[in-house]
Amino acid sequence: MAVAVVAASSLSFTACSKKDAPATTGSGATGTAPAGKDIDYSTLGGTLNGSGSSFQKGFNEAAIGGLKKKAKDLSINYPGGGSSKGKNELADQVVDFAGTDSVVKDEDKSKFKGGDILYFPTVAAPITVAFNVKGVDKLSLTPEVIGKIFQREIKKWNDPAIAADNAGVALPDADISAVRRSDGSGTTNNFTKFLKAAAGDSWKLGSGDTVEWPADTTAGNGNGGVAQAIESTDGAIGYVDLSDAKAAGLKTASVKNKKGKFVAADLDGATAALGGAEVKDNLTFDPINADGDASYPITSPTWIVIYVKQPDKTKGEALKGMLNYFLTEGQTFANGVDYAPLPAALQTKAVAQLDKIVIG
User: pTM for this one?
Assistant: First the structure.
């Protein structure tokens, strides 16, 4: 059965300000969670298996850990593996849910053996342009320069195009090592979508979960693999989620946005980008290259995708409970693990969509 195409009427949601976002710490959740469905988590049981986006894995692990304290008989596995892997395995009904940072292509909708699907947004975060260059602590990069670096048209750190926006920075006469994903990835999809939109005709590689990278780029598996490759290579630059970039101790560039401002890759910039995004009826949205002076232009959305019809009652109830927790109490973990929580209006719409799940 083909996946239903939902009408694309849309609404805008207003970003949470820093003071409105739930307070968090790295070790647990605090603050006030938005209201959700009245679910007794202690009644949930069985095992849920997911796969997909490594970009969202840090948040998923934190939220699963919080839910486990309430649902002691429920086991949830989420090893990551990349958005393409998650979508493919959900299509083949190998997993119960998929994590993805990119939507299912129209031509792939008929491949989903379990029928119609639902997108549940969870969090958002910056895709950083992370670097490891000896003696360089700060960088400002335009979309055009980023594109030329990854197309291998700029190969030296002291190239005049980089120096033009980095006055006072001692850029070395050193080779640039460009690091990219080896696996099919929503992070790659959103990074290349940004370059296609913002760099114009100078970006020649297109966009998608995979693209044909130049042969002399370095491949890393998952966001963690890219971060590790950058950390271990002097002169390296790559695109990686904020959580993995921070965990690896990487420096991150400020990126020129649609308004011509260089904006740091942080949660404030991601929250600002969310404020300019439009949400479709199926809860997909696109904060890439968003309007606004404070918007970080490579802000990625992320979703958990499930089938509408859940014939197994135990799994169906467990999925509904997991999503309810992720969208409510789980949101209070977001900032502490380097993600921006969803704005309240989108949280409300996502919780309401739980009623569309057909169990049994």
Answer: 0.86
